[in-house]
Amino acid sequence: MDSSQNFKPALLVVDMQEDFCPPKGSLAVEGGRDLAQGINRLLKLPFALKVATRDWHPKDHASFASNQEGPNNEPFEHKTTMTNPENPAETKESMLWPVHCVQDTTGAAIIPEIDTDRFDLVVSKGQDARMEMYSAFNDIFGNNGSKTGASVDIASVFKQKHITHVYACGLTGDICVFENAMGARKAGFEVVVLQDLIRSVDRRKESVAKQMEEDAGIVVASTTGAEVARVENLA
Questions:
Q1: What Å distances lie between residue 75 and 1, 5, 6, 71, CA to CA?
Q2: Cys bridge to 10: 49, 126, 157, 179, which one at CB 3.0-4.6 A?
Q3: Is-contact 21 28, C-beta < 8 A?
Q4: Which phi and psi angles does 54 have, rounded to 5°?
Q5: Residues 6 or more apart in contact with residue 42 via CB below 8 angstroms
Q6: Measured between alpha carbons, how far is 221 from 197 in angstroms, rounded to an integer?
Q7: Residue 168 has pLDDT above 80, yes or no
Q8: In this predicted model, what pLDDT tens digit does every residue of 86-104 receive, in sequence order?
Q9: How far is it, in rounded angstroms, from Cα 85 to Cα 87?
Q10: DSSP-assigned states of every residue in 146-185
């Protein structure tokens, strides 16, 4: 049993949704569905809190290429300008994507291979049509996520539950897992990214994301390593 008085870990499973998984996902990531077995093993461990995030977009979301006027509206190629709702003078360019994870559609569902009954909380994000939100903690401008499209203030939930460490896995390693890990770190938590339980849209960016995580003090680890063994020892 772990004798540490300062270790209360949460598991954060990011965006394991149909639209991000083969064979039919509109934004499918190769190997995404294959993560389910490993994630289910983690869900059986004695984490203090087990949380899933999900993209939960309205049909008119600004990140959907089809919602932007042409000709410069190709997904993965063109960007759109978004305005900070908390500071209208601030803007950012944001990538356009295929339509994905629209609220109450099959594509937005967490894949059935995941044992969803073990989640204590599911956080919906990206609900504000104006705003890109890769992280449940914050939007692309860094605003608290609960103000601009997340269903709950996840950082506050973790603090209320006295969570000390956040273990992140899921989809995708170069975007949403990365942004959730960084958001958790900025919110003051120790963070572990489980590298063998992520898959990325662009594998070339995965090493860049890993370096940025490590530079921020995030531990990039394997499910077979000491970090997960520490959770196992809580039993």
A1: 49, 48, 44, 11
A2: 49
A3: yes
A4: -150, 140
A5: 11, 13, 167, 169, 194, 197, 223, 228
A6: 10
A7: yes
A8: 999 999 999 999 999 999 9
A9: 6
A10: GGTT-SS-HHHHHHHTT--EEEEEEE-TTTHHHHHHHHHH
Q: Tokens representing 68?
A: 């932007």
Catalytic residue ranges: 15, 125, 176
Instruction: Give the span between the Cα atoms of 192 and 223, in whole angstroms.
Output: 10
CB atoms within 10 A of CB 47: 22
Show the tokens assigned to 48. Answer: 């203090």
ω before 22 within 30° of 0 (cis)? Answer: no
Residue 108 has pLDDT above 60, yes or no: yes
3-state secondary structure of 79: strand
Question: pTM of whole model > 0.85?
Answer: yes
Please check whether residue 165 is in contact with residue 10, taking contact to mean a CB–CB distance below 8 angstroms: yes
Q: Which two tokens stand for residue 44?
A: 């059986």
